[in-house]
Design brief:
The complex is a heterodimer. By secondary structure, chain A is α/β, with parallel strands linked by helices. Chain A has 2 domains: about 1-30; about 35-170, Glutaredoxin, CATH 3.40.30. Chain A is built from 5 helices and 8 strands; from the N terminus they run αββββαβαβαββα. Chain A has helices spanning about 1-30, 75-90, 105-115, 130-135, 160-170; strands at about 40, 45, 55, 65-70, 95-100, 120-125, 140-145, 150-155. In chain B, strands 2, 3, 4, 5, 6 and 7 form a 6-stranded antiparallel sheet that branches. A 4-stranded antiparallel sheet of chain B has the order 1-10-9-8. In chain B, helix 5 (about 90-115) packs antiparallel against helix 6 (about 120-145). Classes of the chains: A alpha/beta, B alpha+beta.
């Protein structure tokens, strides 16, 4: 009797685990970048320097390209990527917006002091929820935006290829 | 082109060979006294076919045959020969082919080396192993075929990720896989032995060798991965509690526990339930590791291809295996619980049992830390990431009693130990805490938990050293591994407590100074290498009276286009000097990170010692 209960229990736990893993397989699909152009999410976030709330409608409203870059001071690839962001900063037609992800303010400031600040504006995402609204799955990640639509999504650090790609698009 | 086809057809024929193996095994199971030699022959043919297939892939890589998808995705003509070969298993498809190769190799060795054992047991083991082998064949042919074609053939490949181009990482997967797949033999034979109620002393002596083999390879595999992370990732750490690392640690914990249980089985014919469950767990965790890593469920520094379809296959296959094994366990296993009660408090078996529970606790912490974020994400779509503090807080306090029991256990004898004449044990305890207190006080780091931790590690250290002199060669292997473990914990602790770090921005010619160090940036030179451009910095580090030249590098790889930072590390007997440089916004300046890490070398040495204990035990077993 005892044996039967143990076996039933083990099997039901295993089935539960199976279902969870199965579901998580599918949720990965959900996060996959969609190729079609989609609208940017609306949100409001605290600003990095002034600590006031900014609405997303007021950021992406000019006739310009925007590059939303999700970064954090603790993220190692972000260091490599920073060089490319700095490079991109020379274009007038492009504004780089930073989304500081799950970071300590002082560390982030030190990071920018050290490597330079290519961002026009920096928004804070202390708990990581804003990044999820964007459908990001990690840091670093960048979204090229034009007329409130995501033109292109870059997962992982920007590299020389993505630099070229961005330059081609904004020309 | 031709080699890919050969490889592909070899795979298909290899799968077909499973049919006669099944047929002859079932026929042979009831009818005859001796094992049908056809089973061995067919297993050999299957092994040969998989070897041919694997060679086919290696040759495709060597010839840079880009009509093969796998080669196209993971190789490049300018890649050095060594990395062309290691690129074979540096990707999903190739690594699975390697899995299959080791699977077939091990069952063949098993058949050859188990002649004195029960015939039915050998056949059943082959059958269970064949189920796993067939699963991998189908997986390879169906959804991860390493021999897919592209037409027309591209003229150049995409290249292997530069951070994977490292000697330690080139041999890391094969070694780790030998450990993972070795657990498949343990799994199959435990199921076979359970079915036949064959779990006995003879069986324990035989299976101990297999456990030791996979344990040694798993330990060394983890070590290599860790060395790679230390030298290549350039973060100055050696273990990050990254999910992919945890995935290799989990089967190691289960396997270590299993090893200890088998010792009890060998001496006292008990703990069979532990052994069955642990064998199943070890293999399941190895498979689970493959599943979690390859399906892309885990987010990690290790970038692998994500493919949900593949994940689904491994997942279903894994659960089929788990259900088969549970069925065998619940139906055939006859419990030996009544014997457990007769354990005396002061005996080796009791301390091994205590050790088991500690290990199970560590294992659960790692499992929860790795898997819980996935669960939470599915159930509440909340995303969390579990980092080192979680593991440190849950594991470190429990290390203290664990270390003390590890020191005490081997001092007791089987069945009923006596504590007479063991006053030295208490004496050692006092001495070790005193040493620890004095060391930490001397360095002005007087935190109670550190004192106790280092004290208990010293305790294990001293008792094992005493045993080297007292017991000489008796139990040498065990003693060596335990000694290695104490050394490992000590090195890790000293490494953590006494390491120092400087982060600063410098340009050529500038000097950084503080009370202890002086860092001078002497020069920067550019070199053109075969598949990357290297910028080398020349630094002079002055500390007290020692001078050291360090030359970190920035590499700009051409295929694929990635910048990597190569640390320069000067390893000495007592400490490592570790320097990395990185680009900063201002072109002239570089971000310099200098670390001094004591006892780094000893971490590697101690893991080698731990594994070496296993090797000695393996050879000692051979003689009997």
């Amino acid at each position: 009797m005892k044996k039967r209960i143990t076996s039933l229990l083990t099997i039901s736990i295993l089935i539960f685990v199976f279902i969870i893993f199965y579901k998580s397989l599918n949720t990965i699909n959900f996060y996959k970048p969609k190729s079609e152009i989609k609208d940017i999410p609306q949100f409001s976030a605290l600003s990095f320097y002034s600590n006031e709330k900014i609405d997303s409608k007021k950021i992406f409203n000019k006739d310009k390209y925007y590059l939303l870059n999700i970064w954090a001071s603790w993220c190692v690839p972000c260091r490599d990527e920073h060089l490319i962001l700095t490079d991109l900063n020379k274009y007038d037609k492009l504004e780089i917006i930073g989304l500081n992800y799950k970071d300590k303010l002082e560390n982030a400031k030190r990071f920018l002091d050290e490597l330079g600040d290519p961002y026009k504006k920096i928004l804070l995402d202390k708990d990581g929820t804003k990044a999820i609204e964007w459908g990001a799955f990690g840091v670093p990640e960048s979204f090229l935006i034009y007329k409130k639509k995501v033109v292109k999504k870059f997962i992982g650090p920007l590299n020389a290829n993505s630099l070229l790609e961005i330059e081609q698009i904004i020309k | 082109m031709i080699y890919s086809s050969i490889g592909y057809y070899a795979l298909i024929f290899g799968l077909a060979i499973s049919l006669p193996i099944f047929f002859f095994s079932i026929k042979n199971f009831k009818n005859h006294e001796i094992l049908d030699s056809k089973i061995i022959s067919f297993s050999f043919i299957q092994l040969l076919l998989v070897i041919v297939s694997f060679l086919g892939l290696i040759v495709s890589f060597l010839l840079s045959d880009f009509s093969n998808d796998t080669v196209f995705n993971n190789s490049h003509t300018t890649k050095p020969l060594f990395y062309k070969i290691s690129g074979t298993w540096g990707n999903h498809e190739g690594s699975l082919l390697l899995w299959l190769l080791v699977l077939t190799l091990f069952i063949f060795i098993f058949l050859v080396r188990s002649k004195n054992l029960l015939k039915k047991y050998r056949i059943l083991t082959v059958l269970f192993q064949q189920i796993i082998i067939i699963g991998f064949f189908i997986f390879l042919i169906d959804s991860s075929n390493p021999f897919n074609h592209t037409f027309p053939s591209p003229s150049e490949g995409l290249g292997l990720n530069p951070i994977l181009q490292d000697p330690a990482l080139a041999i890391h997967p094969p070694i780790l896989y030998l450990g993972y797949v070795g657990s498949s033999i343990i799994f199959s034979s435990v199921l076979a032995a359970t079915c036949l109620n064959y779990i006995s002393k003879t069986w324990a002596i035989h299976i101990k060798n297999w456990i030791l083999i996979s344990w040694i390879f798993l330990s060394l595999g983890i070590l290599l991965g860790s060395i790679w992370a230390y030298y290549e990732l350039g973060w100055g750490g050696f273990w990050f509690w990254d999910p992919v690392e945890n995935v290799s640690l989990m089967p190691w914990l289960a396997l270590t526990t299993l090893l200890h249980c088998v010792l009890v089985l060998e001496k006292r014919s008990t703990l069979s339930s532990w052994i069955i469950i642990l064998s199943i767990t070890t293999f399941t965790l190895s498979m689970c590791g493959t599943f979690l890593v390859r399906s892309g469920i885990l987010n990690s520094v290790h970038t692998f291809a994500n493919d949900p379809e593949r994940g689904l296959f491994i997942l279903s296959f894994l659960f089929i295996l788990i259900f088969i094994s549970l069925f065998v366990f619940f139906v055939f296993h006859k419990s030996d619980e009544q014997e457990v009660i007769s354990f005396s408090l002061f005996s080796k078996e009791t301390s091994i049992l205590i050790n088991n529970w500690f290990m199970m606790y560590f294992l659960s912490v790692v499992i929860i830390g790795t898997v819980y974020p996935i669960f939470l994400d599915v159930i509440s779509s909340e995303q969390i990431s579990v980092g080192p503090p979680f593991y440190h807080k849950l594991i470190i306090p429990f290390l203290i009693p664990f270390l003390i029991f590890m020191a005490l256990g081997p001092q007791l004898s089987w069945i009923r130990g006596k504590l007479d004449g063991k006053i030295y044990l208490i004496l050692f305890l006092i001495i070790s805490f005193l040493i620890s207190y004095l060391i930490l006080k001397n360095f002005g780091n007087n935190i109670l938990i550190n004192t106790i931790l280092i004290g208990s590690a010293f305790y294990l250290f001293l008792t094992t050293i005493r045993d080297f002199f007292k017991k000489k060669l008796q139990n040498f292997s065990q003693n060596l591994s335990h000694f290695g473990f104490s050394l490992l914990i000590l090195s890790i602790l000293f490494n953590n407590i006494f390491s120092s770090e400087i982060i600063t921005n410098l340009k050529v010619g500038e000097t950084f100074k503080n009370k202890k160090f002086e860092i001078k940036f002497n020069d920067l030179k550019k070199f053109e290498e075969k598949n990357y451009v290297s910028f080398k910095g020349y630094f002079l580090i002055k500390e007290n009276n020692s001078r050291e030249n360090l030359e970190p590098e920035l590499r700009v790889y051409n295929q694929p286009n990635i910048i990597t930072s190569e640390a320069d590390i000067k390893t000495t007997f007592l400490s490592d000097k570790f320097i990395t440089m990185n680009t900063v916004q201002n072109e002239e300046y570089f971000n310099i990170r200098y670390q001094k890490k004591p006892f780094m070398l000893w971490i590697w040495i101690s893991v080698v010692l731990i594994s070496f204990g296993g090797v000695i035990s393996l050879f000692k077993n051979r003689d009997i």
